[in-house]
Design goal:
Layout (H helix, E strand, L loop, with lengths): L4 H20 L1 E7 L6 H16 L4 E7 L9 H7 L4 E4 L21 H6 L2 H13 L1 E8 L4 E5 L3 E5 L14 E4 L7 E6 H6 L2 H15 L4 H15 L3 E4 L2 H22 L4 H8 L2
Parallel strand pairs: 1-2, 1-3, 7-9
Antiparallel strand pairs: 3-8, 4-8, 5-6, 5-7
């Protein structure tokens, strides 16, 4: 028995190390504010699979579902209070927590530039303080809103009409688009702080990789416009001067509303989000 003692000690040490590694793995609960049939969510699920495959022993994500799990306009509060750990949502869906969330659609710079110019740091300052959230990544970008209608009109990003079967009720699309559809990953701040440094680094790395795919939206949106044309949706276009006035007015009105609702943060966000 004495002869095998070193081997037994080594085995015990390896088992203990393995146990510690397992103890370091954390599983975070994820929901989507969007229905599961939307392309946004399909991309999210693919990303989660990649995170889980590469994050064994460090971090795993458990996708609970879409609005059937938590209603769309309750997702923001669910993240704030820790009912869930991460959500894919848009700021427009949780303005009940803070009006500044609606400013995210007014960004005129890509996510990569917003990270460089300090906009993400400022977003997190506000999101931390007002909603107990950490703003992790923006996963939809370069996607304008368009007015559409049959008799009455509605504003929606250029894509996702077919996911929602809205093409059956839409005859026209007004070009150019305005604003920039924002869909992001938000994390409960307490949960974020409770992760180890390695876990935060891993999740950040994966989120940045997800965000880096945003260039793909340009091609996807072009294909979506072609698909809409084939479905009989007609584009109404203005001349260059009118188009500029139309877009500029949309941003003027948008920022006026944000600054009125948030005189403390609105002007700073406008400066950081604009070209």
């Amino acid at each position: 028995m004495i002869r095998f003692a070193p081997r037994l000690a080594l085995a015990a040490a390896l088992a203990a190390a393995s146990g510690m590694a397992c103890a370091q793995e954390v599983t975070l609960r994820v929901v989507s504010a969007f229905p599961e049939n939307l392309y946004y969510v399909k991309r999210l699920v693919d990303w989660i699979q990649k995170v889980n495959a590469e994050g064994k022993g460090t971090l795993q994500l458990n996708f609970i579902g879409g609005p059937k799990a938590i209603p769309t306009f309750e997702v923001g509060n669910a993240v704030k209070t820790g009912v869930v750990d991460i959500a894919m949502s848009t700021g427009a869906y949780y303005t009940n927590l803070m009006p500044e969330a609606d400013a995210l659609k007014l960004t005129r710079l890509p996510a990569a530039e917003l990270r460089k110019n300090g906009a993400y740091d400022y977003i997190n300052k506000v999101w931390n303080e007002k909603a107990n959230m950490y703003y992790l990544a923006r996963v939809v970008d370069s996607t304008p809103f368009h007015l559409r209608g049959v008799v009455d009109g509605y504003g929606w990003p250029i894509h996702a009409l077919f996911d929602l079967n809205w093409q059956e009720h839409t005859k026209y699309r007004v070009d150019p688009g305005f604003y920039n559809a924002e869909v992001s990953l938000i994390v409960n701040l307490d949960k974020w702080k409770g992760l180890t440094q390695a876990q935060r680094a891993y999740l950040t790395k994966q989120a940045l990789a997800f965000e880096a795919q945003n260039e793909e939206w340009k091609k996807y949106n072009q294909e979506e416009a072609q698909r809409q044309a084939k479905a009989g949706i007609q584009a109404i276009r203005f001349d260059a001067a009118t188009s500029k006035q139309y877009v500029d007015k949309a941003y003027e009105v948008g920022w006026a509303g944000i600054i009125k609702a948030s005189p403390e943060h609105g002007p700073k966000m406008k400066a950081l989000f604009s070209k």
